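Handout, section 4.2: multi-component inputs.
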Amino acid sequence: MQGTNSAVGTGGAVVGGESMGSLRAGANFLRDYLVLVMIAVLVVITAAVEPKFLLPANLVNIERQFGPLIMVSMGMTFVIIGGFIDLSVAGTINLVAVVTISLIQRFGQVPALLVGLVIGGVCGLLNAVLILSSGALTQAEALFLTFGMSTVFSAIALLYSGGATMHFWDISASKVVFETIGGGNLGPLSVSFVMFLSCLAVLWVFQEKTVEGRAIRLTGGNMTAARLSGVNVSRSLFLIYTLCGFMTGVGAIVLFSRITTAAPVIGAGYETNAILAVVVGGTTLKGGKGSVLRTVMGVLLVTLMSNCLDLLNVSTYLQVAVKGAILVFAIWLDNRKQV
Amino acid sequence: MSSTAMNATVTKSTVIWAPLFRIATRQKAFLAILIMLVGMIFSHTDFYTAYNLLDMLNSTSILLILAFGVTLTIISGGCDLSIGGILVVSGILAIRLLDAMPMWLAIVLAVLFGAVVGFVNGFLVVHQKTEPFIITLGMGLLLVGIAQQLTDAHPIPAKNPDFMVIGNGDFHGVPNLVMIMVVCFAASYALMRFTAFGRNLYAIGGDYDVARYSGINVIATKWVAFVISGAAAGLAGVLLSSKLNTGSPVYGETTALVVNCGVVVGGTSFAGGIGGIPQSGLGLLVFGLLDNVMNMLGIASYYQVLLKGAVIVTIIWLDCFNQKVKREAV
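Output:
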């Protein structure tokens, strides 16, 4: 909040001139990377009020909380850069989690893991097929279609599991892969964090260095122009939704591995949290601009905020309200930047 | 315009299917209701009793009141996904205020709260020109958080027995809720059909810039649509609390999306400028009837979720497909 005031304040004071130019650049930088300022303010305030925040145990905790949301958000980033939105991630998480955990006993852990990832991708693919076949062009249409699909995926998860919660301790077969994802360490870092780093590297290269990555950005920037300049828009759509579904699948696996249980409702709220993280990071909802690196900052802010509010004994309910307020504020600010 | 667009796409091979397709796509809600009504003749349940049909209407009333408000925003080219949040907060607010002041004042303040949220939505969407879908979704999240905080996520009971009468009483067998719904219907229908405000909303949804150049105060008009939608959600929240005699934050979770879908199901399109209050009524009745039919047939609750999701996807898909056919015909 303080960050914005200063950014807007400096921006308003600038009239012109040489020295003012760098001021303006500074103000633009602040506005562009407001999320960094917010993270810094949050860390300083919380560390001052509650010194426990900087204890290694808490930092490890934050690192682990980071895992599931970042995976989902990185997938969501591409959908939003492509100019669309995916509200079905909650349903996808529910479905992937209950199916994967139930298959460990029956088929072993590696096949279960692979099936989980495939289900995630297929859920995303289904969204893409629906959107393309109906010719939905706007975010609004995609929003409602994917919301409907989320209901469908959740219902399938409920039917498959019978509504029951499944626990790791009920599984007698080897589940060492999932236990490693959930709680293992690689040097000083947790396995889920290493997974995040490798996914980030792959996705960043995909975004910056491949034709497909740039095609997605073009599609989001101006679909007609992209089509006219020879970009296969349908292919971009298939890519973004399938990628989002796949990354949501990865997120679901990280999530239930960490909490060692899977219920058909564990995905609730992930869609709004992921959109929140992406937008707060600075990827614009209008499409065409943004980056997975920005999303990392967004997720960091959301995770830190949850952690800080927990430490400061703010109730979980009020945290939902705070998240909603930040979402509204971030979208408003994102919109101001465009004008 | 829509019929010429349709005719243009009809080719020889689709001659047989074209009329069927046209009926199904132009008034999907009516068709869905007809299918359910005809289907239930063969079901050997108590579906065709005055009691059940009135009960169905009674339980859909609150959704209908929400839908009448939302219709205005969708016709103007926007959308309101914060109504779920307004619904729960205003319901809780009414019950809390009931302890401190006369009942009518508590109700008025709760409705006013909805209008204030609608005003803020209007500011963000209309004045600041943000994308309505996601910003109102965020507003809904914010309000649900507030509702949980206000009640500690537990349902809170109302202590005033008079309050309960509003939502549960009846007048010569017609439930109060149904009567209130009919009044809201008449008021919103008249507003959209017979006033300059209503016509201006259609114009704004049809083409924002053309409406602006023709001298309509686009910002004020569209803003008012959001305020009305918020106030309607506030009223619906009071009625829901009164009907259940409790205020609880859990009812708002998917209400907003279902109501917005219902409005589109009726034929009011996200493209703006098309549709109307009666259509939205039909659209929401599809969901009310579907719930009732599924319960009558004893369908397990998880299958009910699945069916509802499938209906939403199918109908939104058809709406998008219609738009696409129109676009390509132009």
